[in-house]
């Protein structure tokens, strides 16, 4: 670890012990101004972090931490196309996917922007053709249903965003198949008419076993009813491996490429976003990109004290490395963001769930936290008990729109807002045993009853949360929100000192699955595998033989 970073971390640790905010309720009583001081914004997006246990000194020390981790210099290197993904020797340029036509971003001396816009134009022509019914199936019928087959980064982004932008969805119905479990594709295709179904095979590598297996099943669905010649009309593909796509026999006007400098979990802005574009149209997709671009510009230019991704990253580091909180909860008070936590799980945990630094040495600190969540208010009636009274403190990140799309149901939206604000207030304030006792007495409990129940009704409080508010969940707002989190993950990675853009940790399981397949099929005795695995395989095989 570099000495400046080590110093910054140990200063933060002593500050945490000696001088950090210990009692948030008292901090607000003494200084109501903290609500505006510990907040930052970009247009209608506002991030309130005043309910985190930080003060001016904490923020000063965190800014020093950012400086000693060279966050700004590394950010500039990323935007400039340097090969910062050092273990794969690649640039990291998802930001180029949403750059304006006049941007000049180079990889190996060559501008990547014209290529990005050429693909966007081809996607738009295709998407509008499908939406308008000018591109039809083999029997001349327009497409009513589109099935995206992909997994991980080739699935989670489109699924999440299509759901999030349901009010803008005026194209054909969208379906997503990811799991190799045959139940997923069976349930998805059942009820669909092959004549009016378009299948998109989305895979960066075009080798992922789940996707290739489901693609073969989908091919059979089309071919068995419409014949081999229908494949050209009923399939499209999105990949960086255009040579591998060619083998699938697709019409090349229906193949959309992207580049190895786009990580799978950062690829929603590329042709991987095709299903979203088909759902909401190319114009709204352009607004989605513009929202991300607005956050990119902010991330590049805003000073650290006002820079949303840097602040969000530093608060994440504060919670993870200094306060030692093992996880963080993402709770959007927005039903249409119900897949956002799952999307962030891949974005964050596949990026920062590592134990080795970029220099190949074991990390001297913890790395990324466990990320999880569900939309509010549903989560309140499930796991919020643990957030309020559990033995682990879990920082929560709330999201809420000032305005819902359902203007005719304003009362429901008001209830949603009140619940969101109430939860962060409850986590922060808590309720003392004396308050709980007094409340019980005033509700008519006897002294003995109040004394017995008060400990159960006590809330420690001082549980940190960040609240992100925006006007309405438009395509622009969604793009901006996703980009905020992408850059936050980047900022945290710089402090951890890891490469956020590889994912070697997913490989071993894949290799072993390939090796175990013959054992599962009963074609190999599986020499070399451990006794537990072999015994499980044998037990399952015996059940399968009975049918
Ligand atoms: O898009 P593909 O090449 O099919 O990859 C799909 C996913 O699978 C891999 O296992 C990686 O962990 C993910 O980062 C990736 O998004």
Automatic annotation (TrEMBL):
Give the record's pathway. Carbohydrate biosynthesis; gluconeogenesis; Carbohydrate degradation; glycolysis; D-glyceraldehyde 3-phosphate and glycerone phosphate from D-glucose: step 2/4
Among Pfam families, the record links this protein to: PGI
Query: Any idea which residues are catalytic in this one?
Result: 350 (proton donor), 381, 510
EC main group? isomerase
- GO MF annotations in UniProt: carbohydrate derivative binding; glucose-6-phosphate isomerase activity; monosaccharide binding
PROSITE patterns given in the database record: P_GLUCOSE_ISOMERASE_1, P_GLUCOSE_ISOMERASE_2, P_GLUCOSE_ISOMERASE_3
Tell me a GO biological process for this protein: gluconeogenesis
**Principal subcellular localisation of the protein:** cytoplasm
Q: Reaction catalysed?
A: alpha-D-glucose 6-phosphate = beta-D-fructose 6-phosphate
Where found in the cell? Cytoplasm
Per UniProt, which keywords does this protein have?
A: Cytoplasm, Gluconeogenesis, Glycolysis, Isomerase
What are its E.C. numbers? 5.3.1.9
Top-level division of the source organism's lineage: Bacteria
Q: Which GO terms describe its cellular component?
A: cytosol
Function text? Catalyzes the reversible isomerization of glucose-6-phosphate to fructose-6-phosphate.
The UniProt family comment states: Belongs to the GPI family.
PANTHER family per the UniProt record, alphabetical: GLUCOSE-6-PHOSPHATE ISOMERASE
Name listed for the protein in its UniProt record = Glucose-6-phosphate isomerase
What species does this protein belong to? Hoeflea phototrophica (strain DSM 17068 / NCIMB 14078 / DFL-43)
